[in-house]
Amino acid sequence: MTMTSKRNTPIFTNGIVAEHVLLKNGYYKTVFIAPQVAQTAKPGQFVMLSKWNIKELFLKRPFSFYEIEPETGRFSLLYKKVGKGTAVLSESKPGEQVELIGPLGNGFILPEKVKNIAVVARGIGVAPLLPLIRKVKSENRGIYSFLSASSKELLFANELVEAVSLNTYYTTDDGSKGLPGNVTMFLEDLLREDPEAIDVVYTCGSKRLARHIGELQQRYHFQAYISLEERMGCGIGACKGCVVETSHGYQRVCKEGPVFRLEEVVLNA
Fold first, then answer.
1. Which of 35, 83, 130, 238 is the most buried (most CB within 10 A)?
2. Which of 78, 153, 167, 75 is nearest to 119 (CA)?
C-alpha cells in the first residue's frame, strides 16, 4: 500500500499535556492528548502550538510530529529550548491545556514498490523521521539508518531506530560513537557495493547532508525527499513567511512542504 502525502483539513482545537520529560541538555519530549489531531496526522506533517498568553509571544510555533498514536489519541513533540516559545513549553505540566492547529503540511511519500529505504539525520533531525520509520517497519520494508551528532549524548531515539533497522551507521564529531566525519560516507559505501540496495532516501533539516545526498542521487538514481525547517508565522500558507527556492519557483514550507523532492530544492551553500 502506498503512503501518500495527501493533506487533511487542519483542525483548530485544544490539547492536554499528558507527559513532559527533560531528556538531556535542554531537549524535551512532551506528549499531548488531542484525538482529532492524532487520528489524522501523517508522518512528516507538523502542528502549530501555543500555551502562552503574554504580549511578547503572539504567534503559535511549528513542531514536527515525533510520535503519533492514533489509537490512544496522543502525539509527542521533541524539541530544544532555544527561545521564548520553547522556554514556555519546557515548563509544561501534565493537565495543562494548549492550543493547536493541525495536522499541517504535506508528509512523506512512500512509493508502493519500494523495498528498502534509508533515513539520514543529524541530532534532533531524526524527530520528523521517526513516524516514517515506524510506518515503514509496520509494512515489513527494510530500513537503513544513518545518524550523526556532535556527540553520542545528542543522538536521539537511536536505540529505537537501531532495533528496527537492517543496519545503523553512526558518526559523531568527537568520535564518542561511530566515526568522525560525514555520515553520508557510509551511505556512499553501501551504494557503491550495491547500487540497488536503497530505493528512497529521506532526510531532515541539514542542508549539508542534503547536498551530499543530492550528489549521490545523481550518481545512483534513487528517489529522495527532504523535510525542511523554516520560521513560520501562520502555518497555513497565508503569510508566505516560510518560502524556499525550488525548481518551481518560491514555495511555502508550511503549504507545499515541509516535505519536498530533494532534487526540486535549491540548496544554497
1. 130
2. 167
